[in-house]
Automatic annotation (TrEMBL):
One Pfam family from the record: PID
Protein name as it appears in the record: Oidioi.mRNA.OKI2018_I69.PAR.g9360.t1.cds
InterPro entries noted in UniProt: PH-like_dom_sf, PTB/PI_dom
Record-annotated PID domain positions: 9-170
First and last residue of the signal peptide: none
Organism of origin: Oikopleura dioica
SUPFAM superfamilies registered for this protein in UniProt: PH domain-like
Length: 176
């Protein structure tokens, strides 16, 4: 399977996840994802402020939420910046096009990798409020886990991004 590229994606940030999703019911995983989207869009001054757990019965208690989601969160300094997200069977990369000096006074546009998540360390993905794709991933050494939120430019892009991540979860991965 080849890489899929998504343009004009806003990186909303991440929240610390202190408890594994392994033993959580699917509905509770979704609610944690929605809470992460809500928390990060509020913190990053997004123009869209979703209401958590809209139009359905809440399955997770406040105590459970506090036990699963840590206090640490990180939002980008320039929350309005748009990124390119590249998804392969092996990784999710968040990249930024930047101008770099090239030959004296000339500038060239280069793609700079801002974050990379190994697909074998991604444990959960969700499509939230039709335009947000969130996922839970551990860092490279496997010691810390966080929920990451990406805001797509439209519903179609978000649906496609979510479907690609789901597909790569199901495909066998070969690591060299």
């Amino acid at each position: 399977m080849e890489a899929k590229v998504f343009q004009m994606v806003r990186y909303c940030g991440c929240v610390e996840i202190v408890e594994s999703f392994a033993n959580l019911e699917d509905s509770k995983k979704e609610e944690v994802a929605e809470f992460s989207v809500y928390t990060l869009t509020r913190a990053s001054n997004s123009n869209f402020f979703p209401s958590p757990c809209v139009n359905r019965t809440v399955q997770i208690t406040e105590e459970e939420l506090k036990r699963i989601v840590g206090r640490k969160k990180a939002v980008p300094e320039k929350s309005e910046e748009l990124y390119t997200v590249i998804i392969t069977p092996y990784s999710i990369k968040i990249c930024k096009k930047e101008k770099k000096p090239f030959h004296y006074s000339e500038l060239e546009t280069v793609m700079t990798e801002k974050a990379k998540f190994s697909m074998n360390l991604v444990s959960f993905a969700s499509l939230d409020f039709d335009i947000f794709v969130s996922f839970v991933a551990k860092n490279d050494d496997g010691t810390h886990r966080a929920g990451y939120v990406l805001e797509c430019s439209d519903n179609d892009s978000a649906g496609q991004m979510f479907d690609v991540i789901k597909q790569f979860f199901k495909e066998p991965r070969i690591y060299f």
